[in-house]
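Table S5 (text form). Sequence records supplied for joint modeling of the two-component complex.
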Amino acid sequence: MTRRVDGLLSCPTPLDHGDIVQLAHGGGGTLTSRLIDRLFVPAFRNPHLDSLGDGAVVTVGDTRLAFTTDSFVVKPVFFPGGDIGSLSVHGTVNDLAMCGAEPLYLSAGLVIEEGFLMSDLERVVAAMAEACGHVGVTLVTGDTKVVDRGKGDGIYVNTSGVGRVREGVSVGPARAAAGDAVLVSGPVGDHGIAVMAAREGIDLETELVSDSAPVVAPVGALLEAVPETHVLRDPTRGGLATALSEVAVASKVGIRLEEAHIPVRDEVRGACELLGFDPLYVACEGRFLAVVPGEQAEEALLAVRSQPGGEGARLIGRVVAEDPGRLVLRTRIGSHRLLERLSGEQLPRIC
Amino acid sequence: MRHVDEYRDPEAVRAVADRIRETVTRPWTLMEVCGGQTHSILKFGLDELLPAGLSLVHGPGCPVCVTPLEMIDRAVAIASRPDVIFCSFGDMLRVPGSHTDLLKVKAGGGDVRIVYSPLDALRLARENPGRKVVFFAVGFETTAPANAMAVSRAAKEGLENFSVLVAHVLVPPALEALLSSEDVRIQGLLAPGHVCAVTGYRDYEPVAERHGVPIVVTGFEPLDLLEGALAAVTQLESGQARVENRYPRAVVREGNPAALRMIDDVFVVSDRSWRGVGEIPRSGYTLAPKYSRLDAAEVFDVGGIEVNEPEECQSGLVLQGRLRPSECPEFGTRCTPEHPLGATMVSTEGACAAYFHYGRARQDGSSARAEGTG
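The corresponding structure-token record, covering 725 residues in total, follows.
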């Protein structure tokens, strides 16, 4: 489920009926938000959907289950560091992890274009199976559809997932509080730039690979060490800035980031300089953001760093009471910049 | 990262900012001409480091913003044709025309493609001999050499299905026009470094002399911009008004001779209308007569264009440095990057977009800047 948060829920303005769907409606930025606020939420209104998290948390008997779904249309299907198969598993298990849940079961729906190479399909499926095995999640049901040649674009994959929310854990975008610390689990922007470079044939003169990976282990270690963790978000489309800006709005707090502390690889910075992107808005598929009580920041950091995929974790900012709803970056040169949510489409079809 | 980090070094930046504070004894107003410079200033918050009396106003240096509405409408009409592959830099796609924009033409089935180089459009023409490939050649002198090269190659290869819709504009005539207006408040100019890398800065010398205004050729990194501002206020404080090159790692007085030869071969200087500013004599390029069969405006008869400029958009005043984006009543309310009223809210070089993206919409009353985050 594409998620977003802000204060428009109570009074949706109608969509423009003469309008047509544009790429940016699926971009994870403000147009996506508008679609969710004005079309999806009013149509299906219920408390689970209204919370607009990375997934829904529903209670069955005494068990809190996290439930989420995600569709993958990445182009190219195979990119440095991953493919649509592994990405479709990582994306959904990461959404479950962001609910504070341990992933249990997945479903997969494949929409394949007539003419797609069987050997490529085998590669995609093998990658999905390997990713499931790596995380310890079981793919228990699926569906296959084939569309006419020219009516699809190779292959699209949808995965849904169910997980069990950890005992004593309650995370949500509205739970950040003044005094909290913000951490990121590793360098940001690798996935978006790696896919973009592969698709556009941009030679970065280095082997930049996608960060696509499950974050289940470092999140598990974090929640073990700091079960009081307030917020978990994965900075996918819209990147770190959009994810934290949404948290600032939902929690009615200010968030202050230190640019010098935010890890960004040189290859990503270089590509962003060249192409006019801002790494803070470029998607990751194997990173997460955590907002934890300030006094437990060091414990949280050590826990995340103890796990594969979390070695590059850094504390990047703090939550304050001032300027509710605003995400402010202190630049390396000591000036300040307000970070808004992504508007428009930065990089289409990267997940 | 080499060639970037040294120009963003916090200590070096602070040292120049200190020198500006020491130099300035009274209020001055400088204009940074290029939209790329405007974006850097806002992205890095450089205006925060300047003394209160030194104000920066933003110039017309956003080619997408000054491309006339009639040209956008023409592009929309051409791109809507089923036999056309229309290629453009990404910025141009969301600029509102009279009735629609190129992105909506694309969503409605038009074959509109974002390219990163005019040579990509040339490649598309070779690969699609049955389609007509049109490249929207927008830009200042900076992009003119590459666009000229695409035209020249297409002609050499005899590519019959390639054409360009030319909307090139030139900086010095625009500066002349701005400085000649009656209530001009600009006392010094930071000239666009990338443009000067192509053209050099000889054409700026008579402008500085005629109007008694220092013109400093300036780069785009924080240190470049502050050094440009320092040079300008140093001249102003000592009553000088000359052209000074503070971007010597990219710019020499004579410009890039190979690039200039390419431009001379393909383009001729012509009068040009600037959106929001008006007609400026000899301020643009059109294709030289020998290349006219590659001119999309000639190839496609899309007559009957009726231009309809939204009245509420004040981008003309913004482009002339007469109105700050945040002073516009529509800014951030009726006019946003998703629903722009004018091009300045769209382009990556537009001043309104810079104000919006770097949070200047809500700057007033924010305690973030006063308190800091440290």
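Note: The first strand of chain A starts at residue 56 and ends at 60.
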